[in-house]
Amino acid sequence: MDAVTEKQLDKHWNTFLGKVPPIIDSVKQLSPSYFQHYTQARDDVLQDNPDGLSLAMKELIFVIIDIWRENPSGGKNHIEAALRAGVTLQQIREAMVMILLCNGMVTYGRIGDELFQHALKIQGESE
C-alpha cells in the first residue's frame, strides 16, 4: 500500500462500522491496491459536508441499497452503523415501507424483514 497504511485504512472501517467486515478483509488479501482505493472512495462519500446528507442518512441509504442488492451481511453492518449514527427506529420503519412500495413484498421478505428484526433487537438491547 502506498502512503496510506493498512492500519489507517482499517481505522476507517472501525470508525464507521465498528469492525473490519470479513468480506473487506478478504478483499484486502485479494488486492491490497483495490482495498486501498475502495476504502478511500468510501471515506470520501462518508465525509461530513455542511450542506450534504448526514452520516445517519448515508448509512440508511446503504441499508436500502443492501436490501435491493440482497446483501444481508452488509445490511446488518449498515443497520448497526445507522443506529450508532442516530437513525431512529421510525426512520428505519419508513425506509422499509418505501422498499415495500417500490419493490414489493418479495424484496422486503428476502432481506428487509431480517434487517428490521435486527434493528428491533439492537434497540431492545440498547434501551
Give the helices and strands, then pairings.
Layout: H1 6-17, H2 22-30, H3 32-46, H4 55-68, H5 72-85, H6 89-126
Task: State the order of secondary-structure elements, H for helix, E for strand.
Answer: HHHHHH
| CATH classification class of the largest domain | Mainly Alpha
Number of domains: 2
Share of β-strand residues: under 5%
Poorly predicted sequence stretches spanning 5 or more consecutive residues: none
Question: What's the CATH H-level superfamily name of the largest domain?
Answer: AhpD-like
Largest sheet: none
Helical amount: over 70%
What is the correct CATH architecture of the largest domain?
Up-down Bundle
Distance between the termini: 42 Å
- What class would the helix/strand composition place it in? mainly alpha
- Using only CA atoms, what is the Rg? 15 Å
Mean pLDDT: 92
Give me the count of strands.
0
Q: Outline, from the CA principal axes? A: globular
Helix count from the secondary structure assignment: 6
State the main characteristics:
mainly alpha, AhpD-like, 2 domains, 127 residues, single chain
Folded structure, characterized:
The chain has 127 residues and is an all-alpha fold. It has helices at 6-17, 22-30, 32-46, 55-68, 72-85, 89-126. Helix 1 crosses helix 3, helix 2 packs across helix 3 (32-46) and helix 5 crosses helix 6. It is globular, with a radius of gyration of 15 Å. The termini are far apart.
